[in-house]
Amino acid sequence: MIELRHLTKRYGAATVVDDVSLTLGSGLIAAVVGTSGSGKTTLLRIINRLIEPTAGQVLIDGVDIAQGPPHLLRRRIGYAIQGYGLFPHRTVAANIATVPRLLGWPSAQIRARIDELLALFQLDPAAFRDRLPHELSGGQQQRVGVARALAARPELLLMDEPFGALDPVIRAAAQEDLRLIQRQLGTTVILVTHDMEEAVTLSNRIAVMDRGRLLQFGTPAEILTAPATPFVQALVGTAERPFRLLALSRVADLREPGFTEGPVLSPQASLREALAQCLWSGRSALPVAGGGIVTLEALRAHAAGGRAG
Ligand SMILES: Nc1ncnc2c1ncn2[C@@H]1O[C@H](COP(=O)(O)OP(=O)(O)OP(=O)(O)O)[C@@H](O)[C@H]1O
After folding, report:
1. Whose Cα sits closest to atom 11 in ligand 1?
2. What ipTM, to 2 d.p.?
3. What's the whole-model pTM score?
């Protein structure tokens, strides 16, 4: 569990992080969203002590991170940033090995970990471990950047716009990667993003910031259905809200008994995809793999329910 208590950061007269408190349970993904300059990156960097707060505390599993030297803390916290931050003259393997080396892991264990992570990120170890970063595509570099951040099995992974440089298609795949890997490893993740869509689909909690202040911290459904302030409402985009709400649930959640013709939906597909399929195929209901159907009426009710709630 990570707990921020009354965190404040001032530069001269400017307060860039203003009395931020929140608690995030282990194994959850939190997205930090907000306008440019709202203090998101500063907040993230306070957590791994790249920046020291003016006031307030960060506790990880009840222990104040101000105790002990920052470099030891950073070995327990993965950090992945936009542009991937890979060392350009080091191979993929050497990049991933950075923190395990600092921790003094035996080389055989490091080698095994490199191959394990490359396989986890669907990069063939034999083909990729000896390449230099410039010999990789943007998406591959991004995966190596996240693999490096996860190498020493950190309890906490901080990500600052990690997918910002990726084109939309690769971005979706990278998000899916992260979701699967996070589920497998149980790592707690705090992710800064400009992309509300990414925040809603990827995270269990969303923190909305404006001018250094935390306006709201809640589940994506709470943020979408009960925005705390007009600013939050504007940020989540009223017009798109029903669609975002649909993106949060899976076909399996809305499945009902029945049989119908048409393209078969995966139970894991989002309701947003189901709606798109219904509209695209011109049908009022579609079959679900493994049995049952999803109806357009139920999809509409689900989307509208969010608006009413
Ligand atoms: N070292 C510094 N000295 C003075 N002001 C700073 C410093 N670092 C950041 N700031 C200011 O603090 C504010 C918050 O910056 P921060 O990078 O945390 O915002 P952000 O929400 O991450 O923005 P963006 O989305 O544009 O990356 C900005 O107004 C920035 O100009």
Report:
1. 16
2. 0.95
3. 0.79
